[in-house]
Amino acid sequence: MRLRHFYNFLFFAILIPFLSSCFEVIEEISMKNDGTGDVVLTINLSQSKTKIASVMLLDSVQGYKVPSKQKIQQELNEAVAYLRKSEGITNVKSTADFNNFIATISFTFKDVSNINNITKNILAQQKIKATNTSSYTYNKATKTFSRKYQAISTAKTEFNKLKAKDKAVFNGATYTSIYRFESPVTSTTNPASNISKSKKAVMLKSNIMDLINGKINVSNSIQLSK
Prior knowledge:
Oligomer: single chain
Number of helices: 6
Number of domains: 1
Strand order of the largest sheet: 5-6-2-1-9-12-11
Protein backbone atom coordinates (compact mmCIF):
# COMPACT_ATOMS: atom_id res chain seq x y z
CA MET A 1 0.00 0.00 0.00
CA ARG A 2 1.42 3.38 -0.95
CA LEU A 3 0.74 6.33 1.31
CA ARG A 4 -1.88 7.71 -1.02
CA HIS A 5 -3.96 4.56 -0.54
CA PHE A 6 -4.92 5.72 2.90
CA TYR A 7 -7.76 8.17 2.76
CA ASN A 8 -10.80 9.56 0.96
CA PHE A 9 -10.32 12.12 -1.76
CA LEU A 10 -6.64 12.78 -1.06
CA PHE A 11 -6.40 15.18 -3.97
CA PHE A 12 -2.80 16.03 -3.22
CA ALA A 13 -2.01 12.62 -1.78
CA ILE A 14 0.69 11.96 -4.34
CA LEU A 15 2.61 14.67 -2.48
CA ILE A 16 2.21 13.11 0.97
CA PRO A 17 5.44 11.04 0.83
CA PHE A 18 7.39 14.31 0.76
CA LEU A 19 5.82 15.87 3.85
CA SER A 20 7.50 16.27 7.21
CA SER A 21 4.71 17.99 9.11
CA CYS A 22 0.99 17.59 9.56
CA PHE A 23 -1.80 17.93 7.03
CA GLU A 24 -5.57 18.19 7.30
CA VAL A 25 -8.44 16.28 5.71
CA ILE A 26 -11.75 18.11 6.16
CA GLU A 27 -15.20 16.84 5.24
CA GLU A 28 -18.13 19.28 5.45
CA ILE A 29 -21.75 18.28 4.85
CA SER A 30 -24.55 20.84 4.98
CA MET A 31 -27.97 19.17 5.30
CA LYS A 32 -31.33 20.74 4.59
CA ASN A 33 -34.52 19.52 6.24
CA ASP A 34 -35.79 18.14 2.93
CA GLY A 35 -32.81 15.76 2.67
CA THR A 36 -30.82 17.66 0.04
CA GLY A 37 -27.49 19.22 0.80
CA ASP A 38 -23.95 20.17 -0.11
CA VAL A 39 -20.51 18.63 0.42
CA VAL A 40 -17.10 20.29 0.56
CA LEU A 41 -14.02 18.07 0.78
CA THR A 42 -10.68 19.73 1.51
CA ILE A 43 -7.07 18.58 1.62
CA ASN A 44 -4.91 21.19 3.34
CA LEU A 45 -1.13 20.77 3.07
CA SER A 46 -0.35 24.44 3.71
CA GLN A 47 1.74 23.69 6.79
CA SER A 48 4.22 21.95 4.48
CA LYS A 49 3.96 24.38 1.57
CA THR A 50 7.57 25.59 1.68
CA LYS A 51 8.98 22.07 1.58
CA ILE A 52 6.50 20.93 -1.07
CA ALA A 53 7.33 23.90 -3.31
CA SER A 54 11.01 22.97 -3.11
CA VAL A 55 10.39 19.26 -3.68
CA MET A 56 8.29 19.91 -6.79
CA LEU A 57 11.37 21.34 -8.47
CA LEU A 58 12.91 17.85 -8.38
CA ASP A 59 12.25 14.74 -10.47
CA SER A 60 12.17 12.29 -7.57
CA VAL A 61 12.77 12.10 -3.82
CA GLN A 62 13.49 8.96 -1.75
CA GLY A 63 12.42 6.76 -4.63
CA TYR A 64 9.11 8.57 -5.22
CA LYS A 65 8.48 10.31 -8.52
CA VAL A 66 7.54 13.91 -7.87
CA PRO A 67 4.28 14.81 -9.64
CA SER A 68 3.90 17.95 -11.68
CA LYS A 69 1.15 20.50 -11.07
CA GLN A 70 -0.40 19.25 -14.30
CA LYS A 71 -0.49 15.68 -12.93
CA ILE A 72 -2.10 16.82 -9.70
CA GLN A 73 -4.67 18.83 -11.63
CA GLN A 74 -5.36 15.80 -13.81
CA GLU A 75 -6.09 13.65 -10.74
CA LEU A 76 -8.46 16.32 -9.49
CA ASN A 77 -10.18 16.63 -12.87
CA GLU A 78 -10.74 12.88 -13.03
CA ALA A 79 -12.48 12.95 -9.63
CA VAL A 80 -14.67 15.84 -10.81
CA ALA A 81 -15.55 14.02 -14.05
CA TYR A 82 -16.64 10.96 -12.10
CA LEU A 83 -18.80 12.99 -9.75
CA ARG A 84 -20.55 14.73 -12.63
CA LYS A 85 -21.67 11.34 -13.90
CA SER A 86 -22.87 10.14 -10.49
CA GLU A 87 -26.58 9.78 -9.75
CA GLY A 88 -28.08 12.57 -7.67
CA ILE A 89 -24.91 14.71 -7.78
CA THR A 90 -24.91 18.21 -9.34
CA ASN A 91 -23.04 21.52 -9.22
CA VAL A 92 -19.62 19.87 -9.01
CA LYS A 93 -16.73 22.31 -8.59
CA SER A 94 -13.06 22.09 -7.65
CA THR A 95 -10.22 24.38 -6.64
CA ALA A 96 -6.46 23.87 -6.51
CA ASP A 97 -4.30 26.42 -4.74
CA PHE A 98 -0.70 25.66 -5.69
CA ASN A 99 0.67 28.49 -3.56
CA ASN A 100 -0.66 27.11 -0.28
CA PHE A 101 -1.28 23.54 -1.51
CA ILE A 102 -4.95 23.33 -0.65
CA ALA A 103 -7.44 21.46 -2.85
CA THR A 104 -11.21 21.23 -2.61
CA ILE A 105 -14.09 19.50 -4.34
CA SER A 106 -17.66 20.62 -3.70
CA PHE A 107 -21.01 19.36 -4.97
CA THR A 108 -24.73 19.23 -4.24
CA PHE A 109 -26.62 15.99 -3.56
CA LYS A 110 -30.30 15.15 -3.99
CA ASP A 111 -30.19 12.67 -1.10
CA VAL A 112 -27.28 12.07 1.29
CA SER A 113 -27.25 8.40 0.27
CA ASN A 114 -26.01 9.60 -3.13
CA ILE A 115 -22.56 10.11 -1.64
CA ASN A 116 -22.27 6.54 -0.35
CA ASN A 117 -19.42 4.65 -2.04
CA ILE A 118 -18.39 7.69 -4.13
CA THR A 119 -14.94 7.82 -2.57
CA LYS A 120 -14.46 4.07 -2.86
CA ASN A 121 -15.39 4.18 -6.54
CA ILE A 122 -13.10 7.12 -7.33
CA LEU A 123 -10.19 5.36 -5.62
CA ALA A 124 -11.01 2.18 -7.54
CA GLN A 125 -10.71 4.08 -10.81
CA GLN A 126 -7.15 4.94 -9.77
CA LYS A 127 -6.59 1.28 -8.76
CA ILE A 128 -6.35 2.33 -5.12
CA LYS A 129 -7.88 0.25 -2.34
CA ALA A 130 -10.10 2.03 0.16
CA THR A 131 -9.23 1.65 3.84
CA ASN A 132 -12.73 2.13 5.24
CA THR A 133 -16.38 2.15 4.31
CA SER A 134 -18.77 4.95 5.20
CA SER A 135 -22.49 5.22 4.61
CA TYR A 136 -24.80 8.15 5.28
CA THR A 137 -28.54 8.26 5.86
CA TYR A 138 -31.07 10.94 6.72
CA ASN A 139 -34.55 10.10 7.94
CA LYS A 140 -36.79 13.07 7.16
CA ALA A 141 -39.62 11.73 9.33
CA THR A 142 -37.52 11.43 12.49
CA LYS A 143 -34.97 14.11 11.44
CA THR A 144 -32.05 11.83 12.20
CA PHE A 145 -28.74 12.06 10.34
CA SER A 146 -26.43 9.05 10.61
CA ARG A 147 -22.98 8.08 9.48
CA LYS A 148 -21.77 4.50 9.78
CA TYR A 149 -17.99 4.07 9.59
CA GLN A 150 -16.20 0.75 9.35
CA ALA A 151 -12.44 0.37 9.01
CA ILE A 152 -11.25 -2.34 6.64
CA SER A 153 -9.32 -4.88 8.70
CA THR A 154 -6.35 -5.05 6.33
CA ALA A 155 -5.69 -1.28 6.46
CA LYS A 156 -3.64 -1.39 9.68
CA THR A 157 -1.67 -4.42 8.46
CA GLU A 158 -0.82 -2.70 5.20
CA PHE A 159 0.11 0.51 7.00
CA ASN A 160 2.52 -1.39 9.25
CA LYS A 161 4.40 -2.56 6.15
CA LEU A 162 5.46 1.01 5.41
CA LYS A 163 8.91 2.28 6.27
CA ALA A 164 9.18 4.23 9.52
CA LYS A 165 9.89 7.50 7.68
CA ASP A 166 6.72 7.04 5.63
CA LYS A 167 4.61 6.25 8.69
CA ALA A 168 5.93 9.39 10.37
CA VAL A 169 4.21 11.50 7.73
CA PHE A 170 0.90 10.81 9.47
CA ASN A 171 2.05 12.04 12.88
CA GLY A 172 -0.03 15.12 13.61
CA ALA A 173 -2.26 14.65 10.54
CA THR A 174 -5.94 15.19 11.31
CA TYR A 175 -9.34 14.32 9.90
CA THR A 176 -12.25 16.64 10.69
CA SER A 177 -15.92 16.10 9.86
CA ILE A 178 -18.31 19.04 10.11
CA TYR A 179 -22.06 18.56 9.69
CA ARG A 180 -24.37 21.58 9.45
CA PHE A 181 -28.16 21.59 9.69
CA GLU A 182 -31.16 23.92 9.34
CA SER A 183 -32.68 22.65 12.60
CA PRO A 184 -31.02 22.60 16.03
CA VAL A 185 -29.18 19.45 17.11
CA THR A 186 -30.59 17.85 20.24
CA SER A 187 -28.15 14.94 20.66
CA THR A 188 -25.27 12.96 19.15
CA THR A 189 -24.17 9.40 19.84
CA ASN A 190 -20.41 9.86 19.33
CA PRO A 191 -18.88 11.17 22.58
CA ALA A 192 -15.96 12.72 20.68
CA SER A 193 -18.22 15.03 18.68
CA ASN A 194 -18.91 18.64 19.66
CA ILE A 195 -22.11 20.61 19.11
CA SER A 196 -21.66 24.27 18.15
CA LYS A 197 -23.03 27.13 20.25
CA SER A 198 -25.71 27.71 17.62
CA LYS A 199 -26.77 24.05 18.03
CA LYS A 200 -26.83 23.76 14.22
CA ALA A 201 -23.45 22.15 13.59
CA VAL A 202 -21.53 19.12 14.85
CA MET A 203 -17.76 18.72 14.57
CA LEU A 204 -15.63 15.66 15.16
CA LYS A 205 -11.85 16.01 14.90
CA SER A 206 -9.56 13.02 15.11
CA ASN A 207 -5.93 12.10 14.64
CA ILE A 208 -5.45 10.09 11.46
CA MET A 209 -3.08 7.74 13.26
CA ASP A 210 -5.90 6.89 15.67
CA LEU A 211 -8.12 6.05 12.70
CA ILE A 212 -5.43 3.84 11.19
CA ASN A 213 -4.90 2.01 14.47
CA GLY A 214 -8.61 1.64 15.16
CA LYS A 215 -8.49 3.72 18.33
CA ILE A 216 -11.38 5.95 17.23
CA ASN A 217 -14.57 5.43 15.26
CA VAL A 218 -16.22 8.39 13.53
CA SER A 219 -19.67 6.81 13.31
CA ASN A 220 -22.36 9.13 14.60
CA SER A 221 -26.12 9.48 14.84
CA ILE A 222 -27.32 13.07 15.12
CA GLN A 223 -30.83 13.87 16.25
CA LEU A 224 -32.36 17.16 15.14
CA SER A 225 -35.16 19.07 16.79
CA LYS A 226 -38.56 18.08 15.37
